[in-house]
Design a protein that fits this description.
Strand order of the largest sheet: 4-3-8-11-12-1-13
Number of domains: 3
Radius of gyration: 25 Å
Number of helices: 10
Largest sheet: 7 strands, mixed
Number of strands: 24
Strand content: 25-35%
Structural class: alpha+beta
Amino acid sequence: MADRMSIGKIIRLTARIGTGLLVLILAFSCATVPLMQDETGASYMRIPFVRVLLDESQTRVIVGADRQFTIECLRDGEQTIFYSNRPVTVFRRGRGLGIENTRQQSLAEDLDEINIIPRGSGNRLQMAGKRYRGLFKLLPDRQVVQLINVVYMEDYLRGVVPPEIGRRDDSEIEAVKAQAVAARTYALAHLQQYPSEQYDMKSSIMDQIYEGITVENRLVNRAIDATAGQVILYEDNLINAYYHSTCGGMTDDIESVWDRKETPYLKAVADSGACSWSKYYRWREVFTERQLRGRIEQYLSSDRGRDMVISRITDVLLDELSPGGRVMNMTIVTEAGNYRFKKDRIRWVVGRTSNPDLILPSDRFDVVIDRNAYGQVENITFKGRGYGHGVGMCQCGAIGLAREGWSYGAILQHYFSGVEIESRY
């Protein structure tokens, strides 16, 4: 996203929420205006906001709010309004959506869009046992219901920072502030990253984990409020504020980890053991030759779309290391040929024996091979450091530096080379 976001751009983005949704916006301040004129103690929508995909896996979704809420139904440009203080069920049927009350009485069908808007201040949305700020937008998507939470950016962060940084105490608040600024920057830089969709972010590790009000806590809210509107800039542009759990002592150049172009602010930096308290600072995974061969066959079969069988493994070669000490090329040598894997893809190829559903903690590892009396490979041990891709801010390192008295600005400028911290709203 280039320099300052204009009011016109924000209004154009706002218009994409829904053709019938009455959202009134003031300029880039924290001022608020009523969402619907007939409400007292009105609901509000402030800018900048973010549209978060919560679910697109179900044919029926039950939604509601703490108290009374407005149901805006849109069909062929026509708007119908209902009010309810009990949950409603939105379902996929025919060419669009249908909606029914708790007595399974149909309110409307063949809808293009449904918006659920809480009435009154302090009234929150509810879905699947979780509570959310903002409003819900529901759309038909293939054969399922697409559920999107439209929420003010600062309120979005209240549901993002806790699961991303974990439960912290007052001595670590500077790390929480650093996480808040990084998460805000990431979100603002990725608005409209899915141009064919009506959401900006996914509520998972695909973007940032987001769990709504359920995970909010006072320390995190304090950190968010203290840094409200602050973002990380490089040459007056929002950066790609990548972060990961544990760097193992050294972060890395982005081009060494992924097939991305060189980025001046995403360079390898040492954290001088600031993340050494992490349980993933050092780790090991031990495979038998058969186990590792099976993992590679499974990966290749999935990647190539057909069953793949490889010969017995005779060696594992680490051909090139990144500036941060991560493996850039790994060659699996077998009796019938070699298989080469590059950069962060290696983590997905190898996986773990301790939990087959998880990938290797990081690409920063050495390999130790045990052979039998005939020289055949029996066991392969991956001895590594760190957890995650290793690009950008090390979260455990940030916590370690905060414990040492570093400010959030110093933490961010340590992990992101040559950046500035500024308020944008």
